[in-house]
Amino acid sequence: MDPRKGETPEQRHLAVNQFAESDHDSHSASFDHEPVMVEEVVDLTSTIPSGMFVDTTLGGAGHAVAVLGARPDLTLIGIDQDADARQVAAQRLEVHGDRVQVVAGRFDRLAQILRDHAGDATISGFLFDLGVSSPQLDRSDRGFSFRNDGPLDMRMDRSSALTADEVVNGYDETSLGRVLRTYGDERFASRIAASIVASRPVSSTGELAAIIVQAIPAAARRSGGHPAKRSFQAIRIEVNDELGALQRALEVALDAVCPGGRLLVLTYHSGEDRIVKSAFRDRSTVNEPPGLPVEVARAEFSIVRPAVRRPSSTEEQANPRARSARLRVVERVAA
Question: Is the pTM of this model over 0.70?
């Protein structure tokens, strides 16, 4: 039975308002995105060889600006699929002149981008910051926000075909539940999926958030942040094929980085972190064939310890969106 049967869209919006932040103004959002763990990123890139650094998720260029400022011997390829982000990043990086290339694209096109833009340069490092930037979250017209009403979009690349509207209004109940469970770790995935299907057509993010809130038992809404957070995250990951793109891009980056170079990956979701952990572990393990001399059987990579780094308590207090961040780093030790 649908617990919200008979409610109007306006009533559904009211149900979610209790979780809105009173000081939140989506119309004031710009690309003033606070980069997560920027000091750690600068420190961990301080020893990589001279050459080219590739920021695969450029965003507002917060990490890139810091790395280039600390390492005048590095050049940069900055990749982003969001046109607004690229425009702001290009302005912020303009001071570095021809040391910088800002490239349109998604990081699962990394192999082609390197062929087109890296030439014969030594690739000294890669950064993957897998979080959605604050300006994307804050702008209601992008459809990422569960706090501000907007269209069911959630595309990082607005030329892509799949939107949140198709997932929310087009997926069958089983498929929708799978998305919420797999990509959002949502324990009430089946209830939420059933409620969404019963409420179709869902017309906006505000209506979707209210449906999710009402589908979750009242006791479970009282802790853990906004009740719709996990579901919105899951739908965003599905729309942008984020985990599939990550797996493909990591393999390209691991193959491309030079000895002494490093891959740094910031994750914000357990699914992302599992993929990164597995990729790094596999390439840092020696599977020694029988009879192979020890000096020949050498792992390609070494995990930079500690294996997982987290933001400081000070950063978490200053930037709440950093709280779920995990940073993993691997260094190439052999050709």
Answer: yes
